[in-house]
């Protein structure tokens, strides 16, 4: 996909702020990388996050800051930022039906991701409880996710990939829906970082695994991970090669 943003948007400064890891910001970064959209990656250390919470919209990351003509706009919510980058890079469809399909998949993936995140970051963070779960409660929740949520949501996504037959979720090319899937599948479930949800959980979904591999084979993505192995990030400016 080629960047199709107008000159005004292109000349604005875009700063994406998140922790120095992949996480929720990774699909956004990959959209920028694939679409050759310049941005500044600002990494926040966990030890510094508490001091900045009060000044953040919704008290959470990631955020996107857009600076243009002396004006700064600050936007929270990772999926909103991902859609914006998708529209600037040709990774969000112009066709309204295909765009709706992408939106539907973003919501589906978020429905899967939410219970995973609760077990990862704790119920207090999500206002589900006044105290954190005991270890056995967390593992019991993950057992339910493994037995119920993963088959429901990944089964749906697997079917979409199978029926589309292109290796991608919507249309003939990669979209932000595929990149959005990358976070929970490749960076969480696929790495086996959650006790009780083994990496082998993805083996039942061969089309999803093929899609994840397809993302990593995109030349811009392959070059990105060669430069930033393990998804460990500090502060840097992403300047596309064709603009250097």
Automatic annotation (TrEMBL):
GO MF annotations in UniProt: glutathione transferase activity
Query: Ranges for the GST C-terminal domain?
Result: 95-233
Q: Which domain of life is it from?
A: Eukaryota
One Pfam family for this entry, by name? GST_C_3
- One example of a Gene Ontology biological process annotation: glutathione metabolic process
Identify the InterPro entries for this entry: Glutathione-S-Trfase_C-like (IPR010987), Glutathione-S-Trfase_C_sf (IPR036282), Glutathione_S-Trfase (IPR040079), Glutathione_S-Trfase_N (IPR004045), GST_C (IPR004046), GST_superfamily (IPR050213), Thioredoxin-like_sf (IPR036249)
Q: Where is the GST N-terminal domain?
A: 12-93
- PANTHER family assigned: GLUTATHIONE S-TRANSFERASE (PTHR11571:SF252)
Protein name in the entry? Glutathione transferase
Q: Which organism is it from?
A: Grammatophora oceanica
């Amino acid at each position: 996909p080629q960047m199709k943003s107008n000159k005004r948007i292109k000349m604005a400064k875009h700063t994406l702020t998140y922790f120095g890891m992949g996480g929720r910001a990774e699909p956004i970064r990959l959209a920028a990388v694939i679409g050759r959209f310049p941005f500044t990656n600002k990494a926040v250390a966990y030890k510094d996050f508490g001091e900045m919470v009060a000044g953040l919209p919704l008290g959470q990351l990631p955020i996107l800051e857009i600076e243009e003509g002396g004006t700064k706009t600050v936007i929270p919510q990772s999926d909103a930022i991902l859609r914006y980058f998708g529209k600037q890079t040709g990774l969000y469809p112009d066709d309204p039906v295909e765009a709706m399909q992408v939106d539907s998949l973003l919501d589906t993936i978020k429905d899967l991701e939410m219970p995973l995140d609760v077990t990862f970051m704790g119920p207090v963070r999500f206002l589900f409880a006044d105290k954190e779960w005991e270890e056995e409660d967390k593992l019991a929740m993950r057992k339910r996710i493994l037995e119920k949520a993963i088959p429901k949501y990944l089964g749906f996504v697997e079917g979409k990939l199978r029926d589309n037959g292109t290796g991608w979720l919507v249309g003939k090319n990669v979209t932000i829906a595929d990149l959005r899937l990358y976070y929970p599948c490749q960076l969480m479930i696929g790495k086996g970082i959650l006790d009780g949800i083994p990496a082998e959980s993805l083996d039942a979904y061969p089309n999803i695994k093929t899609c994840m591999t397809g993302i990593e084979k995109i030349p811009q993505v392959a070059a990105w991970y060669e430069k930033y192995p393990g998804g460990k990030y500090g502060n840097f400016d992403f300047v596309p090669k064709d603009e250097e």
